[in-house]
Design goal:
The chain is of the alpha/beta class. The chain has a domain at 3-32 and 92-144 and 165-262: Rossmann fold. It is built from eleven helices and seven strands. A seven-stranded mixed β-sheet has the order 4-3-2-1-5-6-7, sandwiched between helices. The radius of gyration is 18 Å and the shape is globular.
């Protein structure tokens, strides 16, 4: 696949970038996970939600089924859910600077999320502004339940991007489209995430940024998946600048992540 064919099939390749940054949305770009926030505050609550997260992390239930269980507990009309999140969810304080740097350096940002696309786009518009439209968003969606409207109580449900997958949205499918490109075209791939929705992406990128104190680090340490730790996007920006400028390598950055974990600096 040449550059032109890659650009036609993969929008992030249109500018022939040397690097692409893929990222989870909830709890990664934002300070709070919007789906957890809905579940904890107007769904069945934090205790059961956290139990489902652990069940998923320990392979006793699929992410798809645990996430559907969470979202089914949120019965407010969909438009009210979106507004509720727009009013409450905050952006990671370092993301705006990172995103501006990425635009200036031809590093496309692709959001791979297990959340719902309308919610993500509404939050990005509010938190990042008009330039957020330059981000490609690949996520799940929502639809009316049979015989109902999305704007009535109990009227909507999650619609998975890959319903046949235990992940609901198998992020590895997108990532492999890029990682399988010929060497003379393939960009260096970064990915940032925090939790159980990112397990399908963990092995599919050149450098994984795993958020300090969250479940993704537990998984990576258990499965020997290389990673580097971040507390917020100022850490990611600094590390990416060093890599883009040739001051360090992806391999060195990943090794530093393991060392931070072993030294107790990963928050786990």
């Amino acid at each position: 696949m040449g550059i032109q064919n890659a650009a036609a099939e993969l929008p992030a390749m249109k500018s022939n970038p040397k690097f692409i940054f893929f990222t989870d949305f909830d709890g990664t770009i934002t300070l709070q996970d919007s789906n957890d926030f809905l579940t904890d505050t107007i769904g069945y609550g934090k205790e059961r939600r956290r139990k489902m997260n652990v069940e998923c992390l320990e392979d006793r239930i699929s992410f798809r089924d645990s996430f559907r269980d969470m979202m089914d507990s949120v019965t407010k009309p969909y438009s009210e859910c979106i507004q509720y999140l727009v009013d409450n969810i905050k952006l990671d304080p370092g993301f705006a600077e990172f995103y501006q740097w990425s635009l200036e350096n031809n590093i496309p940002v692709v959001v791979l999320s297990s959340g719902m696309e309308p919610i993500i786009k509404a939050l990005l518009k509010k938190l990042v502004g008009p330039e957020s439209e330059k981000m490609q968003v690949l996520a799940n969606n929502a639809a009316p339940r049979e015989g109902k409207s999305m704007d009535e109580e109990g009227g909507w449900e999650i619609v998975f991007r890959h319903p046949e997958s235990g992940f609901g949205h198998d992020k590895s499918i997108c990532l492999r489209q890029y990682s399988s490109l010929p060497d003379d075209v393939r960009p260096t791939m970064f990915y940032a995430g925090d939790g159980v929705s990112d397990l399908s992406a963990a092995r599919e990128t050149d450098l994984l940024f795993a958020k300090k104190g969250h479940d993704l680090i537990t998984y990576c340490a258990r499965e020997n998946v290389p990673f580097t730790v971040f507390a917020d996007w100022t850490n990611i920006l600094a590390k990416c600048k060093d890599i883009v400028e040739g001051k360090t390598s992806v391999k060195e950055a990943a090794q530093q992540g393991f060392e931070a974990y072993k030294a107790g600096a990963a928050g786990i």
